[in-house]
Amino acid sequence: MEEYAPGDIVEVKTDKGLAYLQVTHTHASYPPVVRFLTGPHKNRPENVTVLTGSAEGPLAMVPLSGVLRKLNLAHAKVGTAEIPQGERKFPTFRMPVRDKQGEIIYWWFWDGQGLTYSSELTEPQKKLPLREVMSSERFLEQLLVDAK
């Protein structure tokens, strides 16, 4: 099973073309954090590191090697790029805490070390990724989100 490190860029061959992601963080108790990059592409860009230039791609915790194997997608590490200075700190994830009726009563925020909470989300908090381990089905959907 492949092990990926922060900075690794992984190319995934899909029915819609070549999709890319970058491993941004690892945590001892959770799967790697990956950022989905723009794509898919018909051909590999000459310099795949240019795909990492925007820190706007969605983040998710994904058991990457297992998901790629389960989906039987051809893949390979095709480069390494430095994580931008402003993105090196472990990202904060949000998680709803619900009552018995399923209504959200407050939000937990996890930064890889500890939890904080709030009863209301601010606009910036609404943009935080959810603290969940992404399923293989959701991973494939996100990988192809820009597909036409």
Domains, number: 2
Please work out how many helical segments DSSP would assign. Answer: 3
Coarse shape: globular
* Sequence of strands across the biggest β-sheet: 4-3-2-1-5
Estimated structural class: mainly beta
Low-confidence segments, given as residue ranges, are none
Order of helices and strands: EEEEHEEEEHH
Task: Walk me through this protein's architecture.
The chain is mainly β and 148 residues long. It has two domains: 1-88 and 132-148, no CATH class; 92-128, no CATH class. The chain has helices spanning 64-70, 123-126, 136-143; strands at 8-14, 17-27, 30-36, 59-61, 75-80, 93-98, 104-110, 115-118. The strands form two sheets. It has a five-stranded antiparallel beta sheet with strand order 4-3-2-1-5, with no helix packed on it. The mean pLDDT is 90.
